[in-house]
Here is the input.
Amino acid sequence: MSNPILIDPFAFARDGASLQGERPVAALDGRVHEQLASDAGVVTFAVEGFKDRLLRPSLRYRLSATLSVECQRCLTPMPFVLENSGVITLFANESKLEAAVEADDELDAILAEETFDVIALIEDEIIMGLPQSLTHDDCDTDGLKRAKADKPNPFAILATLKKSTS
Here is the structure.
């Protein structure tokens, strides 16, 4: 697990506190590294506490990183720019949380505890923000084209067999 940044989420929201920083990708949890081609890069992040329009304690977050991911077509590393932001509404009571989520299906809410790990939030957002299948816009596919050209077309072979039996 990476070095956490722990806050009291309710006090952070109540006080309108803010926090910004950077973290090397190499310092993040292994769950993040499993999704990447390398651990190069830096993630910048910001978290602000506030009360939403219903006066519920909330956290607004933003993160930005250029990550190295593997192209699924040519299997070489490629850069991927991840920009993500959102709001998390905090609840201390499970029944209030369930009622709020039922009333607003777009609400991103959690049952908050006394401490909240900002870095764990950033790591989770990186993992969820990565697309499943990334490819270069223009892969160097010369090697793939040569491999295809070296193999005879199986349908052409069948066509010659069909002609020879006719």
